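task queued by scheduler; priority normal; single chain, no ligands, no partner chains; default sampling; output format set to structure tokens
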Amino acid sequence: MKRRAALAALAWGCGGAALAPPTLAAQAPPGDALAWGPDGLWLAGPDGALQHLPDAPAAGTRPILTSRGLWLVDSLGALRCWAPENGRRGDPWTLQRTVARPARVHALAVSPDGHWVAAAHGEQLSLLDANGQVQRVLEGSTLQRDLRGRAAALFALPQRRSFVAVWPGLGEVWEISTDPRAAPIFDGLVHDYRMGEAIATPGFLGARRAPLGRPLPEFTFADARVPWLAGTRGAEVVVVHLDVRRQIAALHAGAAHPAGATLHRPAREPAALEWWLPAGHEIQVFDTRRWARSAVHKLPGPVRQVHAVDGPGGAALWARVDDHGGSNLWRLDDDTGGWLPVPAVAGPVVAMGGTPQGDDLLVLCGTPPALLRLDRHGSLRARWPLPAASTWLGVSGAAAA
């Protein structure tokens, strides 16, 4: 009880008033969820308490919640790590460390287990361990040293035990392995690799380069389940495979928004993996085995984000749609195959994301500000009120431990 009271005392709303406790519509614990804006971060813990962390991510960056804690880039461009006070779930969270780099950090990725951090700053990329100790610094240049540049995006791919860095100025995508047993890297010709004539560099924390040329696609989509990235280049959506290190698909989808796309395994064919891509007022569905368009779903406004819940309780698909100036939540109906608005969400939706178990949906509402947890049928499981004076930007769930 004392711990719950201490956490509640940290959750302040407008004018210094304490926020109301979450309304729980089910007995299942809500799990860790994070909502953030320019006024700080609000963490919903496993016991339902809501704690305010007085730290705000730098503009253009996202805080990353892991199974050990969270990392963010602060307004000065330094890395900051928050975690439970004594390393135990349910304890109050405190600032554990601040790590400054030679230049402001402008892109961040963290492995879901929190063991590795990748931070892009200036024309360098630093790899840090869970304690914030720098293990390697990579220079943002080609092998010939004739081009230099900044990393524009970083992604963590935990199933491959790697990070991916995108370098538009170099026309390259790098995959950096965090596996100590990673195979050596051969940057020479195929002949050198096959004949063993090249000098290999270590694969662990080394950069495996994919020279794609310029202009490089603006990559915004990555998923731990697949070995490819997707982004836009002009009017096309480009897909690049990390194993073959080249483009494997160019999709024509007007007004496409890959950053809001999702992967989904259809019940009719569980072995398949579909990519649901927002494109204007449509969601275009692609079979990722052949990169052929298999379906088109029309919605009443521009689609900003699609999210699939493929959890133990079954599959569910959600869409965040701009409608009459607000962003509203729609759900694909299992029986009719049509899209229906979700009655449990009354206000405009700012963002949505999955829970650690992958069975529920986290929804960040703007008016009135609140963090919601919905089950796969759209029913409310938990609701946390948020401060009314804040501007809200994003929501995420913790990675599974």
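post-processing summary
- The longest helix spans residues 2-10.
- Residues 83 and 92 are 8 Å apart (CA to CA).
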